[in-house]
């Protein structure tokens, strides 16, 4: 019986991952293109070792990118771990900062 339950959890987890990867497909393409030309990228801040918040323009749209970077051949390049938020998504997150701060205070 426990083997069946584990399979279900894995299946549900796999489906959730599939949904996430579809939603983030354009940012992955952004990273590959922008790694050669970062002229439309503004580094807003570094939030940790090799982690940055940047604002970039891609395909005529503005994106807020929170991402890990790695060094290859002396160049710092964006990695796969991170998220690119559209302006709409950024505004939703920004409008919920107080709720996020309250949740953090309650749990720390």
UniProtKB/TrEMBL annotation:
Residues 45-96 form the Transcriptional coactivator p15 (PC4) C-terminal domain. Residues 1-40 are annotated as: Disordered. Gene3D superfamilies: Transcriptional Coactivator Pc4, Chain A. The gene is LOC101496003. It is found in: Nucleus. InterPro entries: PC4_C (IPR003173), ssDNA-bd_transcriptional_reg (IPR009044), Sub1/Tcp4-like (IPR045125). One of its GO terms (cellular component) is nucleus. SUPFAM superfamilies: ssDNA-binding transcriptional regulator domain. Its main location: nucleus. Keywords: DNA-binding, Nucleus, Transcription, Transcription regulation. Residues 9-25 have a biased composition (Basic and acidic residues). GO terms for biological process: positive regulation of transcription initiation by RNA polymerase II. It comes from the Eukaryota. This is RNA polymerase II transcriptional coactivator KIWI isoform X2. Belongs to the transcriptional coactivator PC4 family. GO terms for molecular function: DNA binding; transcription coactivator activity. Pfam families: PC4.
